[in-house]
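Reposting from the mailing list since nobody answered there.

I have sequence plus structure tokens for a pair of proteins and want to know whether others read the tokens the same way I do. The first protein:
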Amino acid sequence: MKFINASRLSQYIALPFACTFLLVACDRSSIETENSDLNNEKTIMTQGLDISLFKDEAFIKDPEIVDCETNAGTKTTCYKLVSSGGPAGREPGDFCPRNITDGADVSGGWFSKDGAGDLVDLSGEFIANLASYYDDPNWKLYDPETGKVRYTATKEACFGAAKPDVEEQYKQNCIECELAYLDDDFSRTYLIPTQPIQAAKPERVRTVGIALDGAELAGPAPVDAILGSYTIAAFDDCGGHINAHQWYHYHSTTGCTDTPVSDDGYAPLIGYAPDGYAIYAMLDALGNEAESLDECRGTSDSVRGYHYRAASPSENMIIGCIRGEFVLPEGGPRDGQRPPPPHEKQH
């Protein structure tokens, strides 16, 4: 891919009506840490983001290197990555089953109620047994006479349901949305430091990274609000779904974006966090998890330097926090200030 130097940036005009997200419209509440490795230079070393590892068509514009400033006020350079908001190389889905007789082969997945392990198959049988699964007789996501599953079959239903404060008429639905519902000129812009910069303390963010297919790696979904509205915000088998604000985004990683980058059997690469540190899968080639992870799910070795390891698909987080400086969204708060509540809640 071609790179454009920061000095030429002014020659380029942003896509009209593009919805710009600088990767971290984030909850920057500080995380206290007692990790003695936080100031250890060896722990934090890394080679930074490798553009060549992203999938073809992950970006709708050639990546650029531009001047930027981090949340801590550090002036540096960043990769400017512009994605279409969808996963390159595949069509999202399937999501909701259409009938309680449908199997897992024509539907997606959902978080396990235990909050660990793989996603559960969102089959028709699962929908039919929601009342017993959650020990709540109020679940009624299907017509008992026809067996048809209630799902958001229109753009209006999608937009009314794909948010924590679900509109009343869209409760008791399996939620799914289509990319076709969204604006053709939608884009996502990510600014990621070309070389990670160790932060004074970890931070929590709402967007935890960009996957190698160009889609967002999102923070936790508001599961309590979703289930409290008697809805299921269906994922496809890759652990992602769609809403009106983020387009397609991942809440889990199940292997769809994995890219092996070494010959030592290490866990495959998934994508990069907003601070530029790499995010690898939970399991390595032998099925082993990493040991001695920090509170952000970070670790370090002599080959990869500091990096993150993803959580299990049903944990409702990909990583716990970030350890490096990141770029604030336009109009975002300065260091030490909490951001205002988001004006649009989203899954």
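The second protein, same order (residues first, tokens after):
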Amino acid sequence: MRFIVSTSTLLKQLQSVSGALSNSTVLPILENFLFEIKDGNLTISATDLQTSMTTSLTVEAKENGRIAIPSRILLETLKSLPEQPVAFSVDDATFAIEINAGDGKYKLSGENGEDFPKIPTVENASSVNLPASVLAEAINKTIFAVSNDELRPAMTGVYCQLSSQYLTFVATDAHKLVRYRRLDAKAESTTSFILPKKALTLLKSALPTDDVNVSVEYNSTSAFFKFNNINLVCRLIDERYPDYEAVIPLNNPNKLSIDRLAFLGSLSRVAIYANKTTHQVRLKITGSELHISSEDIDFANEAHERLGCQYEGEDMEIGFNARFLIEMLKNLSGEEVSLEMSTPNRAGLLLPQGGDENEDVLMLVMPVMLNSYA
């Protein structure tokens, strides 16, 4: 088998699917890319058995064939070569690979393409189409709140609820929760599933900036994303998602409206002086003033800042983990945000003011107990 392709074209396609590679010591073949040539079309696949990605490009080739090529050495070789045509020659009997580029010749050992795991297809699937920008925004707004706790597998992914009215994406780690709803995206049938974090991270980096259409197919076990020449298929998390609606407080009489960037900047500075274990900051709201403070008694560090705000409700003092608030404010858009609260021991809701009318974003953050309440 022999084919010719340009270094930059091949490298770009390899990089777009390389995130799906596995470092499996149990199945070393998963460290390879699968190259399949059929009628002058090269399909490249990478998988870790849970998530698989494929891409395709046109190459100069006379024969068909398949070979598994070690990913690390191939990527490093292509990165170091200038833009030029490279010729790959594969010995179908020994799986030896020879790469000719300009005056250089490189030899490496491949593996039998037939031993590469079969890339799954989604059968009996339902489908929904989404603009790439909507999907990218949904991933960006939720993925940071996904849990890393393997003992709670349901929370290690993003929960997707599809209905004929809107699509909802939810992520939580029990300390913070994000519910992102798109009113301009709908599905024909009502269903829900949990997408794993790795697949969403790969999607996020592979999605194009121009607004192409992404076809999403899903059944009870897998989801399949298709756009441009890239296909991604992942196994869904087979768990029951917690009842997130039950933890969102409905009655929040204390409402604070504030400039998002001013609040973010102030929190970022005050958090430097907070305890390095709890990252606790204290918000004290009196009238139209917000006092943000933190202290680390062990090192006699403390910080105070005062911001102007609009506030409806009773004066109150509440503690939060600054890292969670900062993360949320960074992932919200719009100039103003509102923080809605009821009591110092109940969750606060962070909501953007204005912004896209097709977007409904709600972020929930659990408070931390302040010493004064002990």
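Reply #1 (J.P.):
I read it the same way you do. The mean pLDDT is 94.
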